[in-house]
User: Fold this.
Amino acid sequence: MSGKRILLGVTGGIAAYKSPDLVRRLIERGAEVQVVFTASAREFVAPLTFQAVSGREVRSDLWDESAERAMSHIELARWADLILIAPATADFLAHLAHGMADNLLSTLCLASSAPVAVAPAMNRLMWSNPATQDNIARLRARGVQVFGPDSGSQACGETGEGRMMEPADIAAAAFAVLPAEGPLKGRKVLITAGPTRERIDPVRFISNRSSGKMGYSVAQAARDRGAEVVLVSGPVNLCAPAGVRRVSVESAQQMHDAVMAEIAGTDIFIATAAVADYRPANPASCKIKKVSDKLEVCMERTVDILAAVAQRADRPYTVGFAAETNDVEQHALAKLTRKNLDLIAANEVGDNKVFEQDDNALLLLWPNGGRQELGVGAKTVLAAKLMDFIAARFLERASR
Ligand code: CTP
Assistant:
């Protein structure tokens, strides 16, 4: 969010006590934040708190002459790259849906061409009321992004839908709405991640221990460098990184088909998935019963997705991963050549190594003897280093 300007509207709801934390999280991500209050916000929180965390005086009055002289509301509307309203009360949503301009915040929303996002917060019955739902539908149809609300216990003592999303989640969602900047802006990066599941019968499958953490970190790093990112993912326990489009699959064949459906226009392909190499040749259509002492499952090869991409005439810059338990470099080099890759990232796997862990160690190898160690570190840190390396090599090749 480096250098992005966020106009944070705070309206009069009890969830406003969480908004200073949101300001901090946006600033931590590099954004500049200007807070604008509605009159009722002052009933819940003090402007001084927001001034202290944002480093800017809070604006709240359309008729404040000295503030208007410093930056008029029209200039303020132009200044914003994003208008984010958190919390957004039922009353403010109604104002916004009807294009009213009777206070500074709603006037700014009308006078700005920046994207608008709202994080509603209200009692569950106010949220489910058809009037509020009509307003939300109207706002969505106009392109307003609606973050949440979450479900859970509410300040009023009731439980249900209407809690404001947590500040960290709002900050991540806001990041996704902003147009991405970086060296990979305008480039498409396609990534596979996670394990695959190969069906034995309707209730059983063969899979592996991949958690998807490395692939998801790589997807986040690619998006942070400005790329349009598509993540073709096997079943994992992770949320899609903000701003990344996820396509969920189960089997190797489905992963292959999803990759091929997305490959056109792809600049960089990164295969981090732990794809099953074999699958049951004849999956049973009914649950297999334990009638004999032994059960033999005949397996057949799955399609190699990475090799299939690298064979294409319109091949993108193609990166593979090699997960090895022994002779890491030797096996990785063989894969680099056999699969015709531009780069391979090798790591050692085994008991207590890599799978389901937050840390990893990567060795990069590329044709004609290229070699670089990225060292040991958190998967998120290694993913950032790896994406910097890939972006540099890809852009160097593209400029030739
Ligand atoms: N891969 C793939 N499709 C497959 C198998 C592997 O796209 N059917 C990709 C993986 O995502 C990884 C690379 O190929 O980027 C290497 O995977 P790995 O399992 O280490 O190698 P294999 O080709 O399966 O070779 P082996 O099992 O003999 O080590």
In short: Residues 284 and 400 are 52 Å apart (CA to CA).
